[in-house]
Write a structure and sequence with these properties.
Layout (H helix, E strand, L loop, with lengths): L6 E6 L3 H12 L4 E7 L2 H11 L3 E5 L7 H8 L7 E5 L2 H10 L3 E4 L7 H15 L32 E6 L3 H9 L8 E6 L5 H12 L3 E4 L10 E4 L5 E7 L2 E7 L11 H11 L4 E5 L8 H9 L3 E5 L9 H8 L4 E3 L4 H11 L2
Parallel strand pairs: 1-2, 1-3, 3-4, 4-5, 6-7, 6-12, 7-9, 8-9, 12-13, 13-14
Antiparallel strand pairs: 10-11
Length: 347
């Protein structure tokens, strides 16, 4: 996006009153322009194809076709940054799975509209920078082994894999964890998500992966074959006790613009786990995690960064690469095998 170019937004919502209030609020932003509105998914499809918006805001509950079904049909053929707006938390999470890059709660009344408009304007600016990666070339899909992978022999209970991600990270994390057998070190994960959504994310992973996955609670032990997802609205750190490693989850201020913050987690991993850690930075906007990943590397741990081509947003991995925190930069599909190899090298 050019610095002088306004972000072109299409609003898809069946409430005329909300659409008009929303349109006026966005048009008041110096860098945002509403180029069209749609009452339902069919109209939204036609306007997306004719107007080519930079960002689409999409209500989940619409006539003719709900927003989730629409997303599943739209994204494979015409990927565009979509921000979902909804009262329904579970539907919003499904929309993220369908390809939405972000979400915001719909205001319950017009009195809440000013807060909503500030929030959505920030998200629109972020979404406008999203560059969708293409799928792997056919030549890269050669004899991929779909059997679960894990460490050969006994897993060192003092080793830890730490993963951080933001926009595009829900599917990236799933694509990694779904490859693992239970014979893996304990994993600690920060995915930028607000309160309530991290629990559902962890439950989905637990249902679809061989390893155990749960939203972390203060005092949870880090165990082989188990992944702990930082709860939204809390900072998660790795701690050491006489009986092993555990996590501390506390309500604190944002760090690097986020709570949970990847930097907070990674700094604690560097300090507590050191050379027995593997840090992984995945797709996401901004630089959260770059300083912490460098600390892991400096402490003797191994570090991996997702490459530009496979990232939905090459922000966090790029910042970590530029800072010197990334030892190996790889496409997403190669990270699970490399993670297992790096774990085997931990001393």
């Amino acid at each position: 996006m050019s610095e002088n170019k306004r972000i072109r937004v299409l609003i898809a919502d069946d409430s005329m009153m909300f659409r008009e209030a929303f349109r006026r609020g966005l048009d008041a932003q110096a860098d945002i322009e509403v180029i069209g509105v749609a009452n339902d998914a069919i109209e939204a499809k036609d306007k997306i194809l004719s107007l080519h918006p930079d960002v689409v805001t999409l209500d989940v509950e619409m006539p003719k076709m709900d927003g989730i079904k629409f997303l599943r049909k739209l994204m494979p053929i015409y990927p565009v940054p979509v921000i979902v707006i909804s009262h329904l938390k579970e539907s919003v999470f499904e929309a993220l799975d369908a390809g939405a890059v972000d979400f915001v709660s719909k205001p319950g009344n017009l009195e809440d509209l000013s807060v909503f408009l500030k929030d959505i304007a920030v998200k629109i600016r972020t979404a406008s920078k999203v560059q969708f990666a293409f799928r792997r070339e056919k030549s890269e899909i050669v004899q991929i082994d779909l059997s679960p992978i894990g460490v050969c022999g006994e897993v060192d209970p003092t080793s830890v894999v730490a993963i951080g991600a933001s926009i595009g990270g829900t599917e990236a994390i799933y694509s990694i964890l779904s490859k693992f057998s239970k014979n893996m070190p304990g994993l600690v994960i920060v995915q930028h998500m607000p309160t309530d959504f991290t629990k559902r994310f962890a439950e989905r992973l637990d249902q679809t992966c061989l390893i155990d996955v749960k939203e972390a609670e203060d005092g949870d032990r880090i165990l082989p074959g188990r992944a702990l997802v930082a709860p939204g609205g809390m900072q998660m750190r790795v701690k050491n006790a006489s009986d092993g490693l555990y996590v501390s989850c506390q309500k604190e201020a944002k760090v690097s613009g986020h709570c949970p913050s990847v930097d907070v987690l990674f700094h604690s991993v560097a300090e507590v786990v050191g050379r027995k850690a593997v840090g992984v930075i995945l797709t996401g906007m901004g630089a959260d995690g770059s300083a912490g990943l460098l600390k892991i590397r400096q402490a003797g741990g191994r570090t991996i960064g997702q490459d530009e081509k496979s990232s939905v947003v090459y922000g966090m991995p790029m910042a970590a690469f530029v800072s010197g925190g990334v030892m190996l930069q790889l496409p997403l599909y190669r990270i699970p095998d490399e993670l297992v190899r790096q774990v085997a090298l931990l001393g």
